[in-house]
Structures are given as structure tokens and as C-alpha cells.
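To: structure desk
From: M.T.
Subject: fold request, one chain
Message: Could you run this one when you get a chance? Sequence is below, nothing fancy, just the single chain.
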Amino acid sequence: MDTLANVSVVKKANVYFDGKVTSRTVISANEERITLGVMMPGRYEFETADKEHMELLAGKLEVLLPKSEAWMTIEEGETFDIPAHTKFQITAVELSDYCCSYIK
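Reply: Done. C-alpha cells follow.
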């Protein structure tokens, strides 16, 4: 899906890692939370509260998921899921544009 219809946008940005990762929170008509963001090149560790579904809209990522020893490459148009209550690592190989859906 290229567009999100009938949504509300939280004006305040989510800013992480000294501004190297930023996103905006979008709330869908059925109250689902989504973030649209950008990652500058670099390595980052994130922690989840909810299950997350990540879609890479542009760029290239290397991802190390919980309980995995192998990094996987994610390219434009690809997705991956992260379990709730875990930590995972991402290396943004290049400037990357992403959409993250939070699943309760």
C-alpha cells in the first residue's frame, strides 16, 4: 500500500540516536499505531514492547533478530517481523525509509 487513508498524525517526532533515526507516529482509523521513519547509515539497537512488522520502503538494512546468530539483508520492498519484548539490531547500510506497524 503506497498511501495511508483516514489517519491521524502525531505532530511531535520520535527522535533516536542523536537524530540519526527519526519517525512520525500515525494512528489509523481503527486505532492501529504505525510509524513512518528514516534511518541514517549506522548500527542501532532497538527494544520492542509490541510485536512489530517492518517494511523497508527504500534503502538497505542488515538485521540481527532475537535468538538469531545470522544477520539478514533487507532491501527495498522487503519486510520482517520482530517479536514483542525483545531487543534487535539494525545496521542501516544506506539511508533507509521504513514503515513500522505495531501489533497488539
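Reply (cont.): The mean pLDDT is 96. Let me know if you need anything else for the meeting.
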